[in-house]
Amino acid sequence: MITTILSFPLGQILLAKTEQGLCLAHYSKTKKNIRQTEAFLKRKGFSPTTDDAAFKDEHKLFNQYFYGQRVDFSKIPVHFIFGTPYQQNIWKEAAKIPYGKTETYKSLSLKMNHNGFRSAGQALSKNPLIIIVPCHRVLATGSLGGFSAGLPLKKYLLELEGISLP
């Protein structure tokens, strides 16, 4: 597993990938959070090494995104190494939400033929690929809903994409 760190106005994102694709895009506010994420990967049996050059495409796309350009992250291969099959299915469905659009937890669940709106929200709270799997685009009916990385970041990402906040 190789890693790199991206910086943007609200913090940093630790990216990690395997030979199969990107497996982690984890938001961190501080360097301490980055160290904690690296320690988590080691506890899971991975030996992450830093290789910034291996993330050229990801750096380019994230920089474009944070400068307000419409970016299609589906070009980046992903490798779900975390999560249950149910969570992974929710993440795959959420990854289909286009830039600048939103869905509700309810509509996302119904697309999956599942009535567990709360379980969809819980699955999204475990999303290992922030922005790549755009869980920030999933809202509660009539409100922002939750966001494991914090509502200020969710608002920032939605506003960056030109989405009106409820």
Tell me what you see in this structure.
The chain has 166 residues and is α/β, with parallel strands linked by helices. A four-stranded mixed sheet has the order 3-2-1-4, sandwiched between helices. A two-stranded parallel ribbon has the order 5-6. Helix 4 packs across helix 5. It has two domains: 2-75, 2-Layer Sandwich (Double Stranded RNA Binding Domain); 85-160, Arc Repressor Mutant, subunit A (Orthogonal Bundle). 36% of the residues lie in helices and 17% in strands. The protein has helices at residues 31-43, 56-66, 85-94, 105-111, 117-125, 151-160; strands at residues 2-8, 11-18, 21-28, 49-50, 103-104, 138-139.
List the helices and strands and how they pair.
Blueprint: E1 2-8, E2 11-18, E3 21-28, H1 31-43, E4 49-50, H2 56-66, H3 85-94, E5 103-104, H4 105-111, H5 117-125, E6 138-139, H6 151-160
Parallel strand pairs: 1-4, 5-6
Antiparallel strand pairs: 1-2, 2-3
